[in-house]
Structures are given as C-alpha cells and as structure tokens.
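Possible regression after last week's pipeline update?

I re-ran a chain I had predicted before the update to compare outputs. Posting the input and the new output here so someone can diff against the archived version. Not blocking, just want to make sure nothing changed silently.
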Amino acid sequence: MPQQLQGLIIPIGFIVIFYIFAIRPQKKREQKIKEMRDSLRVGDEIVTIGGIYGKIIKVKEDYVTIEVGSAKTKLDMTRWSVGSVVDKNESKKSKNEEVDTKEEDK
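New output (post-update):
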C-alpha cells in the first residue's frame, strides 16, 4: 500500500504546483478585468483590446459607445472589447508629485 501512495505523491505535487503558479494567478487576472469592465461609466477614457483610444459616451448592459479621434467618431463596442481604462488624472498627479519632490530636494 505505501508503494502505491509513493507513486502518486509526485504527480499530485506537480498538479498542486501547476495550480499555484498557473491557474490561480490567471483566475485573479480574469476577475480584475471583469470588475474593471463592470465598473465602466460615462466619461472614462479607455483603450480597446485592438489598441483604439476613446472616451465612453454611453454605457448599456452589453455594449459601450465611445468617441474616437478629433472628428468625434462614435463606435459601438461590446464590453469585452475594452482592454483597460486610462486615467489621465493619476498620470498628472504622479508628474506633479515628481516635480514637488525634485523641488524639495533642492
């Protein structure tokens, strides 16, 4: 009986390690992306999975309408096509903080 269990320890160990390093992080990433897509609102600036930058002007259950370019072209897209939300306020704040820290160092 112990010899049969010893033969199963290594494959079970590989499965556990694979779960910890591959499956679990992927599920966490998918959950974050789902939360981001569920929290989309009008005025958010986004980047689609195809690389198109735009500003959300309408949010419906299954799709969003974005404005693209200087001609303000409107595109209807499904929610799953949103790759990320671009928050320009955060980038401006971080630049201001960098300038403040540089001035303080002088």
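Follow-up from reviewer: compared with the archived run. The mean pLDDT is 84. Marking as no regression found.
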